[in-house]
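Incident review: delayed structure delivery

Summary: a single-chain prediction request sat in the queue longer than the usual turnaround. Root cause was a stuck worker, restarted by the on-call engineer. No data loss occurred. The affected request and its eventual output are reproduced below so the record is complete for anyone auditing the incident later.

Affected input:
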Amino acid sequence: MDRFAKIVATLGPASSNETTLRQMIQAGLDVARLNFSHGTQEQHEENIALIRKLSSELNKPVSILADLQGPKLRIGKLENNELEIVEGQTLALSSSYNPKSISEGVTFIPFDVPMLHEAVVPGNRILMDDGNLEIEVTHLDGENIYAKVIIGGILRSHKGVNLPGSRLSIPILTEKDLSDLEFSLKLGVDLIAVSFVKSAADLISVHETLKKLCDFRRIPPVIAKLERPEAVDNLNEIFEHCDGVMVARGDLGVELPPWQVPAIQKQIIREANQRGKIVITATQMLESMISHSRPTRAEATDCANAIYDGTDALMLSGETAIGQYPVKSIQMMNQIIVEAEKHLDRWGQSTSIRDISFADDAITTSIAARNMADDQDVFAICVFTFSGNSARWVSKTKPTVPIYAFTPRMSTFNWLGICRGVTPVLVKRSNSLEEMLEQIENELVSIEPKTGGEQVIMVGSFPVGAHASPNLALIHTIKSLKNA
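Output delivered after worker restart:
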């Protein structure tokens, strides 16, 4: 394996054709993100079918991440779709327009934000268009919120709104999210990303909804997107109710001062690693490659530093969704990760799940496997898993050798592509330890032919076939297979 950290890339108009997506997968795409803030369900369905087709043809596992829009706050539709606002100007904000309620000389702005009156008080700032425009609440009446423009510019329809310092109480899943979630589950997406998570209560609500929608089907892993200050305050409880997190630096950098975001990123990555949770670092990783064929040096450094911090995956957004160079963006990200990983022993943060104590057989076995791999200088760690959790635990010990996750379950095979250092392998169900070792021999030949004598660590549960947590780690020597 040339690279351990995974690449997540957003599909969009620039990358939703077969030729481009094929090249992206060949360049190193591991996880395809479907952004439900954009596009129709029909378009997403076409993309899912295309991903599965190309993944099979290229014999490269590609996980599918459905990213729900969440309760995104937005400007409503403006007349002529844009409006210039200037410093000192007075605005009236409301979700419904009543010209009789607005004083002469006051400009009305439609806000698609439910219960906005309950969330703000005079003195609160309201940011629009990713923080490029800023207004300050001066007073409220029964119908409108009045605000003075602090930083002006061109405001366009449906731009995002941020309310730093306010506490807007709205459900974590909107009607659109519920529709998109049900649609995604029916089409068998592999992971679900939940936007604007603030607390454990949000995730508990999401899990209750998933149980109802999935019935007896597998519930996909849930990724909590951390983009609100409340989420940072509630990290401990959020980690208890998710399978992974995304450091969504875009909204974090609007809601919080930008200079605070680097330290918060490091904190989230460190705690995710300690708790055995998947962590994705996202937003503006190679932003300049939307319109340029090369990133800035600062962007390359940013990506490398996230690898040194210990992130499991890096995510591309506009670079691959609407950019001019979606394939080159993947190639560049791949090169940056490969180079950074060469220097992990010197510059990397070693924090992993093995740095803290858990009274759990699965974690103890995973840590033992990692230590054995170091001591014996083995070729790989081979994990037999049904749900995929065993492979995730081993991944979070941050081994320096590849992990091959052997599973008879297609849904597990599909989602494991996001785990650092993990290559999923689809096999028949094993009924004995001998069968498991035989599968290792046979599959490793097809993946990367060996000359014989190399050693691997096998991780599994005993008795075989019990679907229990892993409690077995052993060293196995590969037979002579060069003529196989």
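Verification: The mean pLDDT is 90.
Action items: add queue-age alerting; document worker restart procedure.
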